[in-house]
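Run log // design_07
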């Protein structure tokens, strides 16, 4: 066995990431606010815990995959949370998409308690998580990053060492700003193609193989054409990530007008009932926004 991991947060991304650790030979203890989501892993040998403290106390490592700063503050810094409950020497790997300030705050509190901390958010969606093909953007000191490497290798295909604490969170926000703005541009292109009577299958082939072709065109265009907006990346989470990016841009005094425009589109889409759908659902609004 490679050691014991306490995994916190078994949502759409967390569950397959935890599964990868189990398959790689790590002992696994899991906690999720909605306990039913832990049952499948429990059936495969993971220890299902009733609290974060129960999960982390005997663990060598803690991995967290929750939705935002508020959730991270609760699972890391609250009473009975991971930083308070973990034994000295435990390594915390936070793969949530947080603000850099939150990542640095958790890292500082962890150091005070003799813990190691790495902020290691991911690039990739549910498919990449299931296939262990995620790319981690990791921030932390070298000793912590070295110790985290076997865990990250069990869940993904690459780790990019971005710098000190908070650098992984920073890189993730930059990555998601690009993904969000490109998705909005793709939605606009498909909406115009449809309105102009273009053969959409031909458009898909041309755009995926042309200069703008990317993993996003290959994954989002088919969803936009078919109207299958089952979530790979929920629109409401992208809205949150772009909000965090704009705050980061403001902190470093750099303009971000393209991101601000796209974020306004995501904001408008949420009350229209699209928040829980995939970001590709922006195509349903693109005609209104042209």
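design_07 sequence
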């Amino acid at each position: 066995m490679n050691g014991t991991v306490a995994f916190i947060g078994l949502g759409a991304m967390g569950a397959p990431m935890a599964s990868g650790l189990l398959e790689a030979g790590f002992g696994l203890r899991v906690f999720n606010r909605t306990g039913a989501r832990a049952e499948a892993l429990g059936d495969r040998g993971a220890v299902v815990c009733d609290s974060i403290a129960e999960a982390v106390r005997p663990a060598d490592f803690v991995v967290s995959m929750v939705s935002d700063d508020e959730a991270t503050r609760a699972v890391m810094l609250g009473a009975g949370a991971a930083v308070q409950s973990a034994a000295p020497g435990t390594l915390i790997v936070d793969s949530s998409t947080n603000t850099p300030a939150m990542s640095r705050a958790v890292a500082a509190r962890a150091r005070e308690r003799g813990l190691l901390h790495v902020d290691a958010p991911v690039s990739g969606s549910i498919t990449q998580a299931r296939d262990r093909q995620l790319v981690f953007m990791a921030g932390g000191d070298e000793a912590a990053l070295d110790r985290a490497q076997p865990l990250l290798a069990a869940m993904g295909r690459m780790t990019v060492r971005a710098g000190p604490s908070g650098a992984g969170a920073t890189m993730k926000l930059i990555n998601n700003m690009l993904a969000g703005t490109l998705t909005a541009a793709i939605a606009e292109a498909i909406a115009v193609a449809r309105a102009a009577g273009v053969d959409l299958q031909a458009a898909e082939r041309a755009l995926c193989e042309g200069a703008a072709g990317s993993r996003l065109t290959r994954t989002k265009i088919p969803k936009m054409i078919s109207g299958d907006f089952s979530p790979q990346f929920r629109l409401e989470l992208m809205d949150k990530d772009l909000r965090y990016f704009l705050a980061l841009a403001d902190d470093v005094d750099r303009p971000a007008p393209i991101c601000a425009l796209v974020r306004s589109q995501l904001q408008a889409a949420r009350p229209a009932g699209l928040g829980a759908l995939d970001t590709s659902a922006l195509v349903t609004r693109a005609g209104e926004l042209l």
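Residues 167-195 form the longest helix (29 residues).
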